[in-house]
Amino acid sequence: MYERTQLSGLAAELRNISVTYGAEAVAVHAVRGVSLQVHRGEVLLLMGPSGSGKSTLLQVLGCIRQATGGSIFIDERPVHGLTESQLSQLRCARMGFVFQHYNLLPSLRAWENVALALELRGLSGIQVEQASRRILSYLGLEDRAEAYPEELSGGEKQRVAIARAVVGEPDIILADEPTAALDAASGTQVARLLARIAHEEGRAVVIVTHDSRISGIADRIVYLEDGAIRSIQKNVRLQMRSLKESGIHEMENHSRDSADGVVDRRTAVNG
Amino acid sequence: MHETVPTESHIGVWKQISRDVEADELRLTVAMPDLILVDQAGYLIERQKYRALGVSGVDSVQSLIVRFTEWKRPDGGTESVIVVGIDPAVRPALQPWNFIEGSVDNLRIADGVVIDELYSQKLGVSKIGETVEITGRRARIVGITSQIRTFTQSPYVFANLKNARIWTGLPNDRTTYLLVQAEQGTNLTSLRNALQAALPASDVYTAREFSWRTRIYWLITTGVGAALLIAAVLGVIVGMVIVSQTLYSATMERLQEYATIRAMGATNRYLQTIVLRQSLLSGTLGYVIGTTIAVIVAWMSRASSATLMLSYPLIVILGIVTLSMCVGASLISIRKVLRVDTASVFR
């Protein structure tokens, strides 16, 4: 699994999705005509103010909430018309979920929480335990495998949750505010982990977040407002990297210029 | 766990009240028509025994007197007792059993009675040789048995036929029952029919029929059985409500966990299995604890006047009832889990 090469292609597609709660006079339009493609190997951030429809869109993408209009395609197959049982199987086989409050089962050890995702797929036995421990080790939690959730820090809990989400090798990871309950250092660690899963393993990672600190891991950022897409920022990661590199370059020039006794104030301020 | 004791009491009583009348498969009982209870029979003319002896297949016939009477303790108090008059010379016959002191032969002694140790305190006597009064006449303890229980509050007191007639006021030519011992290999139903034809003024019962008649009287006619049955049913209902409530509370506490598992792709079947497994686990635990307590109580009650009888089939049946009850009690929780809002995990 970890040697898996980067994949490309469409993992999911939303076409003109609408979600309305209530009816007529009391109707609330949570999502209005959103069309979006999610590619394998990319990190897509859904951002926007509270009530902008981010979480609802994530639920629709995760086949947890039915859209009132539009079509959803997972792996280029329409989701429309699938039964509740088929949707469960689809989620189990194709998706992994990471929640804001981790949602680990308190009565299970870390590795057992991870193993649960495999058991839902009908797997059992020693291989399940080995696979669960392996993924925890991959995420730097090999010495925490026996711990119960209450014995783990917030960052560790979220990494266990990520392990649970990815152990079944899903195409899409859906994360709802994964860093909101974490301190800055843990949040950065979790964000980098999700980016690594997308970029090294070729999975589509969709993150709903208010946390602008993690925007550096995104390939695209979709800004939502009043249930509709306000803007899409592309190549964010590359731009950030480019900015960072140019910053380093400028600093190097600055060092050289300083040595020469010349200071470019404009460059120093902008850098 | 909750229904174990009342149900077992019910079955135990069922067995206890017919223990002595069911003992001999080859025995038939002749009694007055419309007999309703072993302890409350009408009178038979004793010479009918000779007519019974003339029926083919009859080995022997024994008179049996069963009558309530009054026992006066040495301290002056009185107790109601059931005098059981037998002929100690007739073997095999209905006789007191489990002797811990004395023997059935001691009943040949003119004023001898045999009591059970379970009731020695109630009767105010504790050893052979002590004397009391039965309906104003002297009686002497000549034997003590173990665990011959009565279903009523009146202990059985064994005596010979002569003494039994004196103490109960029964005329010499009267008896309450005739116990007919069939020859080996005799068809009991045919013999019963032949006896019934020979003794048209009486009723004839096989041991099993007599046993059932007694059971039916106590458990249905008197309302004792109904009361115990209601207690058992209430036990099951209360047990179901408690298990259901406990399971429901546990499910509600973990609803978010169920929502998480469902979001991860758990099928309805998987979720049902989790709840059922919890329910059966709780049921098994409760059953083991309840049955252990019941077995201990039954063991402790073996030396008391009200024993609790616990058979292996009964234990198995109660296990099935308990686990079925748990499955039934889990239905509400399963319904709740299957209706959990999966989207709630994103709040």
Give the C-alpha Rg of chain A. 21 Å
**What integer is the average pLDDT of chain A?**
85
Number of strands of chain B: 12
Main beta sheet of chain B: strand number and arrangement? 10 strands, mixed
Regions with little confidence, pLDDT below 50 for 5+ residues of chain B: 1-18
Shape of chain A: globular
Structural class of chain B: alpha+beta
Distance between the termini of chain A: 40 Å
Largest sheet of chain A: 6 strands, mixed
Average pLDDT over all residues of chain B: 82
From the alpha carbons, calculate the radius of gyration of chain B and give it in angstroms.
28 Å
Fraction of helical residues of chain A: 25-40%
Query: Helical segment tally of chain B?
Result: 11
Strand content of chain B: 15-25%
Could you please describe the fold and organization of this structure?
The complex is a heterodimer of chains A (271) and B (347). Chain A is of the alpha/beta class. In chain A, 38% of the residues lie in helices and 24% in strands. Chain A contains eight helices and ten strands. In chain A, the strands form two sheets. In chain A, strands 6-7-8-3-9-10 form a six-stranded mixed sheet. In chain A, α5 runs parallel beside α6. The longest helix of chain A is centred in the last third of the chain and has 25 residues. The N terminus and C terminus of chain A are likely disordered. Chain B has 347 residues and is of the alpha+beta class. Helices cover 45% and strands 20% of the residues of chain B. Chain B contains eleven helices and twelve strands. In chain B, the strands form two sheets. In chain B, strands 1, 3, 4, 5, 6, 7, 8, 9, 11 and 12 form a ten-stranded mixed sheet that branches. In chain B, strands 2-10 form a two-stranded antiparallel sheet. In chain B, a hairpin with a 2-residue loop joins β7 and β8. The longest helix of chain B is centred in the last third of the chain and has 33 residues. Chain B is elongated. Chains A and B meet through α1 and α2 of A and α8 of B.
